[in-house]
Amino acid sequence: MSGREDLLLGFRLAVGGGRGSIVRLVLSAFGIGLAVVILLTGASTGTVKENRDQRAFASYVRSEPIPGVAPLAYRPATTDFRGQAIALVHLRPTGPNSPIPPGVDRLPAPGEVFLSPKLEELVAADTSGLLRPLLPGEPVGIIAAGTVLNPNDLVAYVGSDTLRSGSMVYGFGAERGYDYTIEQEVLALLLIGLFVLLTPVFIFIGTISRLGGATRDRRLAALRLAGSSVRQLRRITAAESLAGAAAGLVVGAALFLLLRGAVTNFQVFRFGLYPSDLTPPWPLVVLIVLLVPALTVVTAWFAQRHTIVEPLGVVREATPPKRRLWWRLLPILAGIALVLPDFGMESGLGRAALIAGVVLLMLGIPALLPWLLERVVSGIKGGPPSFQLAIRRLRSDSGTPSRVVAGLCVVLAGAIGLQSLVAGQAALQDEYQDTTAGRTIVTAEGPVADKAVAAVRAVPGAADFQAMRSMFVTTAGGDHSFSSFAVADCPTIEASTGTTGCRDGDVFAEAPSFHKGQSVTLTDLDKHEQPWSVPATPRPLDPKKSGIAEYLGVRVLATPGAAGGIDLTAASVTVSLRDGAANPDFVELVRNSVAPLGWEATVATYNRERVTDEAQMFGDARNILLGGVLFVLLLAGVSLLVLAQEQVRERRRALGALSATGVPVRVILRSMVWQNGIPLLLGIVIATATGIGIAAVGRRMFWDTLYIDWAAVGVLACAAVVMVLLVTASTLPSVRSAARSENLRTE
């Protein structure tokens, strides 16, 4: 037969070889399809970064003056609605050619707002009536979706004619240099996590391509009897593998398109993606289309390297060659050489060295595990019959189970290291939470301070009301420069400090150098200065940890009687209050009460359910990695299940012989548990050690103390053990069927 006929015969055998062939083709298509989805998603990371950078660069403001351009007064502010952050960008043009932000064709007039698509949906869906008052104007348009950084961002451009302060913007679209932020640290973790998730995919593709190995060998022996040469058999084997790979590519492309269409509903910490972001470059698509079939073909050929197909049957080498150690240590040594020096995470070289080093360390796991497993099982003797059966099987073929387990252990090692890093950083961020013991804080500029105080007092259920007018104080000698100065009544002072017996006219100070009659200078936010003479001997100031004085960092505190003659018109006010009516929408009522004041009033709330942006970022990254790990654990479980079922089919005669000699089925099942469990337990030890090493090296990205998330280690290890038990239990019907004496019959 010609080469073309050989390939056609291979396709016919893969598709038309009976029910078993169809089952193998479906399993191969589904498994390879899942792998293709992950590969296409990973290939899209470059496009994601490029598109996000373009949107981010387009929204950057240019503050350097441009001749002939009337600047735009630009002041961003933030509010919240039921835990969702809303960005309110207040705009006031100073001339007819003031710049226009991206996404709109004109500037909003005073009393008008442009809404981002997601904010417009939220306003339309809100039935409580609490969101609309937060918008200081009438919605007149939608910001173009492609210009908002994230599809789920809640943004509003607000027109204003009273905006007095803020940045003067002469244009949009200025690029910035590299700015190292905490987001870069999280992205570095996710890049490592991406590799962790991709590694078992290739192992899974290799495992899928080995489906039906025994049946394929018998068919090839029949073809040899019919006169086919060894070269023809290789072409037929390649065609059978290509059939499953082609079907997997189609299934993977369809699943990827479904994921791409639904990607706007997913959000990674505070980042989101548009469908156009999830577009892999064509060169990488072509590479994946060529790589996946090539990998399946090479794996199928590689699986037959110790198999001799002859016309009268199939002969396999009984003793596999011993594995060499030296080349298996190379990736581990190279990884250690890259991660030990501290190049610094601020540089691109430092981040690349750390990521490459960690990747090489994890590559050492699948390289080292087969050699280590071979050495371990070769030295084990004795034990119950089920244990001895498993050891004999592992001695004859330790490579197949170790390959599947190796991919799982790469995931475990990366997950243990990354989970420890993000869990440790999230724990550090927790110390910044709950600084006001669940109070709601309102801050207002000086000109609207009295209006804000009156509006907040009128909120139903407002209790434990405290208010302070704050400025900065500077002594004549320049000491204590920019210390915080505040004016408050005695009930507020006693509630926010440890002071008792406060009387109007008292002065309190932390600095002992303040004394009666001392002349100081008070400065407000508008940088207006006014002299003030300390009217009384200051009493000691001891702010409570969760009080408003500690929140503001007050160092000098005066009662209204002591602040006589001070012009507080430009002094901002900070109001602290609690919900006294157990109203779940109390904070929204407070926001609505000061919403008419626009950018001059802001509301913040801190409680144990609210976390900082950084803590939320690391917490979400931890959940993403955990979800990905569990998905790949499922993928590895499918690999083990396929492997276990295939081994049962290949060993039907051996299992039948064991049953005929009196070996109970439960002993055979226990031997399969040992057969899968021994490589897994060995791999868990290696993965834990590697994961701790990754955490020890990566900790310098964040802190100096090694933090190990032992809970994650235990959960992931238990999940792997449970998966092995479930996989073994699922083979019970196949084992019972294979253990019948009828399987000893032959022709």
Major sheet characteristics? 10 strands, mixed
Continuous helix count: 21
Strand content: 5-15%
Envelope shape = elongated
Total strands: the figure is 22
Give the helix proportion (percent range).
40-55%
Average predicted local confidence, pLDDT: 78
Structural class: alpha+beta
Describe the protein's architecture and organization.
- With 747 residues, the protein is α+β, with helices and mostly antiparallel strands.
- 51% of the residues lie in helices and 15% in strands.
- It is built from 21 helices and 22 strands.
- Strands 13, 14, 15, 16, 17, 18, 19, 20, 21 and 22 form a 10-stranded mixed beta sheet that branches.
- Residues 177-182, 429-434 and 607-611 have low confidence and may be disordered.
Features:
10-stranded mixed β-sheet, 747 residues, 15% strand, single chain, alpha+beta, 6-stranded mixed β-sheet, 22 strands, 51% helix
Strand and helix map with partners:
Elements: H1 3-16, H2 19-43, H3 45-59, E1 61-62, E2 72-81, E3 84-93, E4 112-115, H4 117-125, E5 138-142, E6 155-159, E7 167-169, E8 171-172, H5 182-208, H6 213-225, H7 230-261, E9 267-268, E10 271-272, H8 282-303, E11 307-310, E12 313-316, H9 326-339, H10 348-378, H11 385-396, H12 399-429, E13 440-444, H13 449-457, E14 462-475, E15 483-487, H14 490-496, E16 507-509, E17 519-523, E18 529-533, E19 539-540, H15 548-552, E20 554-558, E21 572-579, H16 586-594, E22 601-605, H17 613-650, H18 652-660, H19 665-698, H20 710-730, H21 732-738
Parallel strand pairs: 3-6, 4-5, 15-20, 16-19
Antiparallel strand pairs: 1-8, 2-3, 2-7, 4-6, 9-10, 11-12, 13-21, 13-22, 14-15, 14-17, 14-21, 16-20, 17-18
